[in-house]
Design goal:
The chain is mainly beta. The chain is built from 1 helix and 17 strands.
């Protein structure tokens, strides 16, 4: 919950037999998470908490054996190796094997939630940072799940007007 941490990182760790996650990114931006291995964790393993976290860099991390948890968040019943609540982060060269549900789950929120609640942060409509060369093996549901949609727009928190006449006359609408 400290905001920008451009010089901070978690690199080259082994985290195993965790009863609650491996690495949680909570209220931080520009955090560097690289070359970490998480084995036998309960609930989401690499976890972006409040849907406000942006520009974090996840590279070359591995999650193995991600199990359901019934005492954490409701979503931990169907856990992901990477639970992503804001799309504007960077995910490259990560791998997941053997999860009870998902590999990478973009569970996008309309606004920031939890202690970071902010109606001016609308991740569900923000840009996708980067998602390249990631793999998921032996997951019980989907390797990649985008839930609640992802509709990137220039102004993510402005409402979309679904009136066909309006959109046909205003193709350069700055809210879209």
């Amino acid at each position: 919950m400290i905001g920008r941490v451009m010089e901070s990182h978690v690199i080259g760790n082994g985290i195993h037999h965790s009863f609650n996650r491996a690495i949680t990114t909570h209220g931080v931006h520009y955090f560097h998470i690289q070359d970490n291995v998480a084995f036998d964790t309960l609930g989401h393993t690499f976890f972006i908490e409040d849907a406000i976290e942006t520009n974090n860099f996840y590279d070359h991390n591995l999650a193995i054996k991600v199990s359901s948890a019934f005492s954490l968040l409701n979503t931990d019943v169907t856990p992901a190796g990477f639970w992503i609540t804001h799309p504007n982060n960077i995910f490259t060269n990560n791998a997941i094997a053997n999860t009870d549900a998902y590999g990478f789950w973009f569970d996008l929120e309309p606004t920031a939630i939890g202690p970071s609640f902010d109606k001016q942060v609308c991740g569900i409509n923000d840009k996708l940072g980067r998602f390249t060369n990631n793999t998921a093996h032996s997951v019980h549901k989907y390797g990649l799940r985008i839930f609640h949609g992802l509709i990137p727009r220039t102004y993510p928190c402005k409402p979309v007007i679904y009136d066909g006449n309006y959109l046909s006359k205003n193709k350069t609408d700055p809210y879209w």
